[in-house]
Specification:
With 120 residues, the chain is mostly beta strands. The chain contains no helices and 11 strands. It is elongated and about 50 Å long.
Length: 120
Amino acid sequence: QVQLVESGGGLVQAGGSLRLSCAVSGSIFNINRMAWYRQPPGKLRELVASISSGGITNYADSVKGRFTISRDGTKENVFLQMNSLKPEDTAVYFCHADYSSTSYRYLEAWGQGTLVTVSS
């Protein structure tokens, strides 16, 4: 019932910037946490950044000081501003939501991913 759609990926030069967006649709009673994950080629999916319902943010050590997660004020949509990009940031980036509906307390949803490629 909940759909997440990522956008904003692409090819950028090392040192450049990208802004990823995650559009949220469907019936949601409450969002507990929104997050961005990424999966480099041939590697495991990892948590990049998260933001709680109270606006508390957390970041992976590898992106601290370079990436910023945020959300808009009217919807649950979430963004990831990525600065000073490095080749090792190359990955498919996924949006993720922890939420509750009127029927279930603990639910989650994944987007399909958007590819970010950083050239050297």
